[in-house]
Amino acid sequence: MENLFFFRPEEQTHLKDLYRSLLRLSGKVLKPDDCANLKNYLVQAGLNNFLKRDVFDLNPIITDMETSLIVAQEIGLTRAAILGVMLHSCVRSNYCTPKDVERDFGEDVAGIIHGLNRIQELYDKNPSIESENFRSLLLSFAEDMRVILIMIANRVYIMRQIKDTPNKEAMQKVAQESAYLYAPLAHKLGLYRLKSELEDLSLKYLEHDAYYHIKDKLNETKKSRDAYIENFIGPIQKKLEDAGLKFHMKGRTKSIHSIWQKMKRQKCGVDGIYDLFAIRIILDSKPEREKMECWQAYSIITDMYQPNPKRLRDWLSIPKSNGYESLHITVLGPENKWVEVQIRTERMDEIAERGLAAHWRYKGIKGGEAGVDEWLNSIRNALENNDDMKLMDQFKMELYEDEVFVFTPKGDLFKLPKGATVLDFAYAIHTNVGEHCIGARINDKNVQVRQQLSSGDQVEILTSSNQTPKQDWLNFVITGKARTKIRQALKEMQARQAAYAKEVLERKFKNRKIEYDEPTMMHVIKKMGFKYVTDFYNSLANETLDVNSVLDKYTEMQKYMNGMADHTPAPSAQEFNMQSEAEMKTQGHDDVLVIDQNLKGLDFTLAKCCHPIYGDDVFGFVTVNGGIKIHRCDCPNAEQMRTKFGYRIVKARWAGKRGGQYPITLRVVGNDDLGIVNNITSIISKEEKISLRSISIDSHDGLFSGNITVQLDDTVKLEQLIKKLKTIKGVKMVSRN
Length: 737
What we know:
Structural class: alpha+beta
Number of strands: 20
Largest sheet: 6 strands, mixed
CATH class of the largest domain: Mainly Alpha
Number of helices: 27
Helix content: 40-55%
CATH architecture of the largest domain: Orthogonal Bundle
């Protein structure tokens, strides 16, 4: 291998050292033919120019060997993982196939290579790495958990090598991925040294000045800091031993990344961080003596060093919701330096370190779902049990049985429930896309809207402007958004169809020279068994109801009603009210809803948003249940109703005869003078056919404002009342709500 032109002189020397180190670490687990077969694959791939350097100009064989060393030395993985790392570049570059690897090295090695290359394909789709979905998808793609461990090891090596790379853009991207994705994963797996290294290197590349500022500060005080920790621990250790406690202690300095995070949170410099020094005291206590001995240790320490009561964290008395138990104190040690001391027992430490990710959440790492945490915790336990590495081969990812992750052609990542279809995905992108969806291309293959999706699918939605939502879509979509939007669209389509059907019916009336009367039509609709007007018109639109039969029934009803009218006594002249000129104009040619409280068979109500009364300019609005609400033309909601639902607007006018009294609310504002309320109520009580229903007055800084609700007949009475109220001394404004 050392004679390959693919290697630079310095790389050839380094390669020999790496090869010896790798053999020393993994020689016992490799089979007799593994080294020869591996060397043959790599030599031939290099000679035939299959292997390429990456964006940082790193040699792929050197990279894989360095990754293998980390995998073997610092993580503890064995043969399959090491060979998988060394051979995956050969498979990815198409020098050999997975079948070749399986033949020469076994199914286990081929499986790891499959996982590594599948994750590389995921990266090639260029999804957003900041998405929590990407982390979940990465884990679900790594069917063998060793693949994730290899990816972490590979990222550690790359981060060590890119300090001087000229490709700053790629360096920034890799550093961001390391901080967001790989460092938290390493932490969850218990690979604390690798996690800290990834975080510190990410900070070094992303926040260069901050990193070196903290590093220089720590270097200046390293000797004195180490001496200080020893000086701090010594007296405590003696006192605890004298008290008969069994324990061990750890002293440490926080990582640069951890210090930087605290500096940002506390908005202070390095010197302002209380707990640059952290001491952990872990007691070997029996369950029934745990709390007592923890508080005993607390008492010994606080007798020696002054505590900061504001920094006491008692998770012994009331553990955290995730089960974390510990006692944290910050004390003023020698030289007036603050030191954080954590006191816990072996059991508490075990829970904190391994118990369902409690320790990880305590440190502020964003955890995944419970299944992810439980799986990763199992891996960690397997890693620490080096006597039974075979356990690792049994772990397979079955975490996301209830979810699928799919991509758009641009690489955007979406998470959907298992069983989601192309149509669910279309609605997840945008309602407009869903409504016009006619199918999709999944991995360059045309499929129907009902096709179910699988994790990793790249889905391009196909649309057509002629497509509209269908009733049967509700039979196969499973997401709440899709179902809601489809139902909403179907209702609006039915409303439009009903409006169109009504227009068609009215044209039929004109063609047959039959006078159209809305009340008569309402009688016909009810007699035909329709509860809602919209159902009647939808039946016409769907042609399940014949227009001619409706015309025939209408004619019969008209004759019947006219016949009834012949026996009705003629109204006296005294009861006759002359219609206004505006009403007569309205009656011209357009169909108008006549509002008469004695009218039967017509379902209308007065809107509560504007409280119309007799004499107001009004219009009708067909509601979803088929009834009609009467609104004032100047109603606050009128503009929105006309813009969005113009087809549901019905012209309306009041009947020639008044129909009783109406509630109306007036807003009154004025000076808070003595007797102002009495004056207002006095005027209302003197008015004929006006009754006071309620009055609510508030006063503030010499002014009063309030609402008055009265019952009156029409707008004429209302205008007269408003004029009289405005004449009251101190009243500044009277307006209708």
